Predict the structure.
Amino acid sequence: MASKEKIILGIDPGTTVMGYGVIRQVGKNATLIAFDYVKFNTKDDHYTRLEQIFSSTKEIIETYLPDEMALEAPFFGKNVQSMLKLGRAQGVVMAAGLSRQIPVVEYSPKRVKQSITGDGNASKEKVAGMLKSIYGFKEIPKLLDATDGLAVATCHHYSATSILGAKKSYSGWDAFLKDNPGRKR
């Protein structure tokens, strides 16, 4: 019996830089397809950047046609304004995926780092170095947002192929209601 292939898109949302990584999973094996980042103009207002984040995410989806999408959940910081903006960016990325019926799963930054390095407090550089070792790419990118996105995709792959399995995800509200009949619209 052949193992089912799936494409996983990992995204590290941001309002100035958004990193992404795309991997192909066949059974318990993953291979690198692409990883990169998208920079947004910091001189544009927040709403313009949200539209650019949505458009960029849709373009990435159209290019790689992922079966599943994993996002890094925002961490709790002291700056409430920054958290609000980051949460909006994450919501826009989710909306882009859900509008294409792609299941979306979130992982905390600590869980992503733990799954890649074994250390939930690892530096971005350590995560990037481990990913370089795993996938064999030649150079670590200047902006580590690219490897952050790849780390999220890899974390999802590891979670989906572990005996514990991935967190439950839904492709939309209807799918959630089907699994949770007691909930109302």
Notes: The chain has a mean pLDDT of 88. The two ends are 41 Å apart (CA to CA). DSSP finds six helices and five strands in the chain. Residues 5-179 form a domain with the Nucleotidyltransferase; domain 5 fold (CATH 3.30.420.10).
